Amino acid sequence: SFLLDKYKPEAALFRATSQGTDVSAASAAKLGFGLCTDCIDIKVDGGQIKLTRAAFGGNYTVTVVNEKAKPQITTVRPKAFAMPEKDASKQGEIVKESFSVAEGDLNTQIIEFITSEVTVNLVEADIIVSGGRGVGSDEGFKLLKDLADTLGAAVGASRAAVDSGWIAYEHQIGQTGKTVKPKIYIACGISGAIQHLAGMRTSDCIVAINKDPDAPIFKNASYGIVGDYKQIVPKMIEKFKSKLNK
Ligand SMILES: Cc1cc2nc3c(=O)[nH]c(=O)nc-3n(C[C@H](O)[C@H](O)[C@H](O)COP(=O)(O)OP(=O)(O)OC[C@H]3O[C@@H](n4cnc5c(N)ncnc54)[C@H](O)[C@@H]3O)c2cc1C
User: What pLDDT digit, counting tens, does each position of 165-183 carry?
Assistant: First the structure.
């Protein structure tokens, strides 16, 4: 809030992580500004900054304009925007600021770091093998893990799979999970609900495996395989193992 007060920028962007959301909300509250969280698009139109975010469970997107207060404070999901080509004509100035906080002013203290059981960083992974309710059990996720290990991929999941207790929340992809943009996203037994698509639709290549030929995921897929994942995934593992000499 100190920097926002000092520089009074038009817009202030924070990462939509738990820390970014904490700091942006506290800054907005302290300075009396508005806050638009989980922004998926930003446009400058007629001198106004227009922020787009999902609303009503992801069924609508709304455009938010904060006319009264500047800066427009927003949190932006990692990987929600495609990386633009480098443009040498655009130059920015990096201003380094230092700050110090007295220990007595801190309300919380870090006692220890516990390493997450998630070994591959889902957000940074190039390939993700993801499972939904159609995977049916934690045994089913072991099969997906075999495919992921063969490809050097991370394992993702829909909320339905997480809520069923087959896999930990850290793996959840979508509106209330992580946003990912891998080179290849393999969706097994996932119907393609809008809240799931919100977290993976910008993947470079989407491969959908679903036994229902009318599943909405196929509308967003680069490649679709209609069938039971229990028959298809073992064949993929076998093929990839022989292709990759594993
Ligand atoms: C506010 C809100 C936030 C939400 N946030 C998220 C979120 O972050 N992430 C998320 O994923 N969801 C989220 N949801 C839930 C979302 O609406 C869907 O309910 C959920 O994504 C459905 O998960 P699914 O596709 O795994 O299950 P389902 O929709 O039940 O689909 C299962 C699919 O598996 C297929 N199938 C079944 N058996 C097999 C088989 N043997 N082989 C191949 N295919 C098979 C079926 O044909 C079906 O298409 C949210 C909902 C709300 C309201």
Answer: 999 999 999 988 888 999 9
